[in-house]
Design a protein that fits this description.
CATH topology of one domain: L,D-transpeptidase catalytic domain-like
Largest sheet: 5 strands, mixed
Pfam families: PG_binding_4, YkuD
GO molecular function, one term: peptidoglycan L,D-transpeptidase activity
Number of helices: 12
Helix content: 25-40%
InterPro entries: LD-transpeptidase, LD_TPept-like_central_sf, LD_TPept_cat_dom, Transpep_catalytic_dom, YoaR-like_PG-bd
GO biological process, one term: regulation of cell shape
Protein name: L,D-transpeptidase/peptidoglycan binding protein
Strand content: 25-35%
Number of strands: 28
Structural class: alpha+beta
Shape: rod-shaped
Length: about 450
């Protein structure tokens, strides 16, 4: 074989070998990336989709995310701490399908950069845990948002503006992180996660409530108690007006409490009194049946209806009991009974009109002390009860004026031979005040129903 033929054979063999190598490599690059291929800045040359995906996932799992606030870095965390996992297979397959495996020789010298979209997967449980923990930690010492509200200012209600604060809302933090990850951002602004006031000064509903509350608070309330006029302070009326979930309303309990205070101050029932006696100076007399009180329930309901309607009120309180129409509580017309002196006086218009010795109850059945009143007048009544030995008694009397609700009263006693002194100790009544018949006739005629009877 001559020399030329030998070279042709060598050249031909080389061509066949190179062609075969080229074909084999081209087939190889059908499922592998070409030389000098970068995806998302990472070299994936000669790698399969699975190998390239693993490399990208490892790289991006180490990616750090920065949380900033007021241009300051507050926190840095890696993706896995946020519950983030990545999968690039879809984008890698797209990039692989776009490359021409027969041009691998060109890429050796030219290289190429391809794009593969991230397909992040977020573990919602892990993200929520991160958000809750981070919010709790960062919120220490932070200002909580304060809703706009209505406050009393002098004689009217005014809107107090809301305060934004800078506390972090864990749910907002989780959503903001999710949005950042979905948009391939590595920075999260904590200002976007602040808790916000739910009620603002600009809310029309709050402004309506302000107007309605001021209308109610401007109601003028005056109460007539006997000869007195009690004008309720405007600040007190304001304290009854409340904001009930955006609705101007009036507190019935607050009005009831106020009327209860008035009743304690002005009512006379169930109160011990200092009484200036005829012969024993000033004595303390316990409560009896005499006296009046404000009907708290009815009076409060009357006030409530007026304030709710925004209508001024000037009315007398609803009251019950005895002596309401009398100035100075007991007044200057009454019956006075001294158990110690065994004596009784009838005072009319401040002057003694008549008086007499009497007999009160035995020591073991003593006539009760107290301020009572004649609540009935009866002629020819029969008084019934028990004697000391347990036997029944029935005592007919011509004049009967009961003063309490247990059977005690003033009456004539024709069976008594004497009155006054110590006679009552052995011959006293079962609790009533025994009067001489002639005196009782005059007393019965003179005393009206409702007259106070003071026994001490």
């Amino acid at each position: 074989m001559n020399k030329n033929k030998r070279w042709l054979l060598i050249v031909g063999a080389l061509v066949v070998l190179l062609g075969g190598f080229y074909i084999v490599r081209s087939i190889h690059y059908r499922d592998h990336f070409l030389p000098n291929t970068e995806i998302l800045g990472i070299d994936v040359s000669g790698q399969s989709v699975d190998a390239a995906n693993q490399k990208l996932v490892q790289q991006f799992n180490e990616r750090q995310y920065t949380f900033v606030e007021n241009d300051k870095k507050v926190l840095k965390v890696k993706g896995h701490a946020l519950g983030l996992s990545q999968d690039f297979k879809k984008g890698l397959n797209q990039a692989l399908n776009k490359q021409n495996p027969w041009l691998w020789t060109t890429s050796i010298f030219a290289g190429q950069k391809a794009h593969a979209d991230e397909d992040p997967s977020i573990n919602s449980v892990a993200l929520k845990q991160f958000a809750d923990t981070t919010a709790a930690k960062l919120n220490q010492g932070r200002q909580e948002p304060v809703n706009a509200k209505l406050v009393a200012d002098g004689t009217q209600f005014k809107i107090q503006k809301e305060v934004n604060g800078n506390q972090i809302d864990a749910d907002k933090l989780a959503k903001t992180v999710t949005t950042a990850l979905d948009n391939h951002r590595q920075t999260v602004n904590l200002a976007d996660t602040y808790k916000k006031p739910t009620v603002k000064a600009s809310d029309s509903s709050l402004q309506t409530t302000e107007r309605d509350m001021n209308k109610l608070a401007a109601t003028k309330v005056s109460l007539q108690i006997q000869s007195k006029t009690v004008t309720v302070p405007q600040a007190t009326v304001m304290s009854w007006v409340t904001n009930d979930n955006g609705k101007a309303t009036v507190s019935s309990q607050a009005i009831t409490n106020y009327v209860s205070t008035l009743s304690q101050q002005y009512s006379t029932i169930n109160k011990t009194r200092q009484f200036n006696t005829q012969q024993q100076g000033t004595v303390s007399v316990p409560a009896g049946t005499y006296g009046w009180s404000i009907n708290v329930t009815s009076t409060a309901a009357m006030i409530l209806a007026s304030v709710k309607a925004g209508q001024d009120l000037n009315k007398e309180v609803v009251h019950s009991g005895s002596g309401y129409a009398t100035d100075g509580d007991i007044g200057n017309t009454y019956v006075e009974v001294s158990k110690e002196k065994q004596h009784e006086w009838y005072i009319k218009d401040g002057k003694v009109v008549m008086d007499s010795d009497i007999v009160t109850g035995k020591p073991n059945q003593a006539t009760p002390s107290g301020v009572f009143y004649v609540w009935s007048k009866q002629r020819n009544a029969t008084l019934r009860g028990k004697n000391d030995d347990g036997t029944d008694y029935a005592s007919p009397v011509s004049y009967w004026m009961p003063i309490d609700y247990t059977g005690v009263g003033l009456h004539d006693s024709p069976w008594q031979p004497k009155y006054g002194g110590d006679w009552y100790k052995e011959h006293g009544s079962h609790g009533c005040v025994n009067n001489p018949p002639d005196f009782m006739t005059k007393l019965y005629a003179a005393v009206d129903e409702g007259t106070p009877v003071i026994i001490y």
